[in-house]
Amino acid sequence: MAEYIGLTIGPIYKTLHRAKKTRELWGASYFFSYLMKKIILEMKTKYKADFVIPYVKAPDIFNPGKEVGLFHDRLIARVKGSVFDTLYEDVICPILYETAGKIIEKLGSSIDQDLIYDYLKSYLNIYFCRIESDKAQKDINKEINQHLDVLELQGKFIHKDQEDFLMRFLNCVNKSFLIEDAFKQRRHSFQSIPEIASRELLEGLVESGQIVLTPSASNPEDTDDTVIYKQIKTLRKDAFKTYHKYIAIVQADGDDLGKAIAGLDSKGTDAFEQFSKALFRFAQKAHDIIKINGGATIYAGGDDLLFFAPVMYKGKTVFDVCHCLGDCFKENIAEGMGREEDLPTLSFGISISYYKYPMYEALESAQTQLFSKAKKFPGKNAIAFQYLKNSGNFFNGTLSRNSDIYPHFRNLIKNDPQYDLKTEILTSVIRHILNFRTILLEIGQDHEKLAHFFDNTFNEDIHGPYSGFFTSVCAFLHEVCCTCKYDPDEKIKLIYNVLKLKKNLKGEEDK
Fold it and tell me: Which residues pair with 3 in a beta bridge?
């Protein structure tokens, strides 16, 4: 029978949630991907391991310069010999010792390498298991993951007085070995939230020296956010919008991948590898899509994404980016599975918050939108968002990309250069939605009556140039009223909140 090793590394989420800066969040994610890459590479060299997960046959996969961690927190490998007995001492321990030395290069040579090494061994949760089986690959994958799920329940006890070397390192991760591995250069600073949020205004001005990224007085690793915005408002006053002070944190996760894997055997012996390859290919393309649209990827592990994005970048919203990622996921999965129907989908949780809002709370919000809203929505393949205002108020909504509502949602919130929608027009529509909500729910399923309502309500000369906008609102409202997936209160709330989203995507604060 064939022998398999399964390995998991952590604690990833615990570490991510302790990050307070963008560089710390990126560094925490890349750190675990870096360790997994080192482990996989050493297992290939030392044991000639054949990896089932992740896909590692791309010719340049181990080369530096990927900018983002592409390696999962788990691996499954087919091995021969006494790998299980020697893996920890011969592979994992040397990698941790070497990593401890690299951390010292940043923190200072006065710290003993053995001290960092012992810290890493006590902090990191690296567990592995072994099985022998001749079952189908899908069954082996399921069995090993069940073993790893149990092993991950073994939390380690960390003494409170133990110095937190990892967070100290992540706080100054710029110009470290992780940066060099990710960007092929020693000097690179991961951008701050204001730099990402206002990227479209900063481009060209930083390079030309017109805007200077001034270090914070409290920490030279930080940029002074207040100074950045003062410079932007001076040089780009006409282009500055309120949404340039808001950042989107997006988390995405595949829907029903277990069901997809369960049906792979009928496609031949290499079906599992092709599926894994498709996920790897998507992760690479996803990072490119995020980057092109002004965002910054934290991790891209197959179907699992986390990234920062501007609310608006060159006329495209963060919702446009998610739509593009969803289509890209479908295309790659279809190619990997060799079919166009009954494919896994990708759901999104989007948290939009003020740049001063605690990052770990914004991250928790994105996770809540994804796992408690989008992935629990009927049919999944959903987008759930929360827009948290500087005032502390928030609004949210959940829509399925499968629904008839979704195209009208996209059409309604898009940045339309054909006309300059006046704030008072949008405010008036929002007010009428609330004032006439009972009537709208009554006639909402009758498109003709709904159209008459809008024609009669917004019939003054000032409304004439915006007939296209009223048509979009009417179409969206009609589709929401026709669906059975929301109760009456949820329907009005969704319509109201999407219009508020439209207002904020225009750069207008919602009062």
Answer: 79, 132
Distance between CA atoms of residues 51 and 286, nearest Å: 23
Sheet holding 2-10, edge to edge: 50-53, 74-79, 2-10, 125-133
In angstroms, the Cα distances linking 437 to 261, 298, 428, 429, 459 are 45, 41, 14, 12, 19
DSSP state of 66: -
Find the helix or strand (DSSP H, E) in which 2 lies.
strand 2-10
Q: Residues 459-481: pLDDT tens digits?
A: 888 788 888 899 999 999 999 99
The residue-averaged pLDDT of 36-50 equals 96
Residues near 456 by Cβ (< 8 Å), separated by ≥ 6? Answer: none
Name the nearest CA neighbour of 130 among 72, 79, 74: 79
State the pLDDT at residue 188: 61
pTM, 2 dp: 0.93
DSSP 5: E
| Peptide linkage before 54 cis (omega within 30 of 0) | yes
Q: What is the pLDDT of residues 269-291, one digit of tens each?
A: 588 888 999 999 999 999 999 99
471 and 411 Cβ atoms separated by less than 8 Å: no
CA dist 181 → 178, 192, 368, 442 (Å): 5, 20, 32, 60
pLDDT, the chain, mean = 91
Token pair recorded at residue 266: 């009928």
DSSP character string of 269-309 = TTHHHHHHHHHHHHHHHHHHHHHHTT-EEEEEETTEEEEEE
| Token pair for 435 | 């004032």
Q: Where are the alpha helices (DSSP H) in 70-192?
A: 83-87, 93-107, 113-123, 137-151, 165-171, 177-183
Identify the DSSP state of 90. Answer: I
Tokens (6 digits) for 161: 């007085």
Measure the CA–CA gap between 111 and 104, rounded to whole angstroms. Answer: 7
Q: Which two tokens stand for residue 185?
A: 């250069």
Name residues whose C-beta falls within 8 Å of residue 155's C-beta, 6 or more positions apart in sequence: 125
- CA 97 to chain centroid, in Å, comes to 31
Q: Residue 359: what residue type?
A: M
Residue 154 tokens read as 């073994």
Q: Please state, in angstroms and rounded to a whole number, the distance separating the CA atoms of residues 67 and 21.
A: 17
Residue 51, beta-bridge partner list: 77
Which of helix, strand or coil describes residue 338? coil
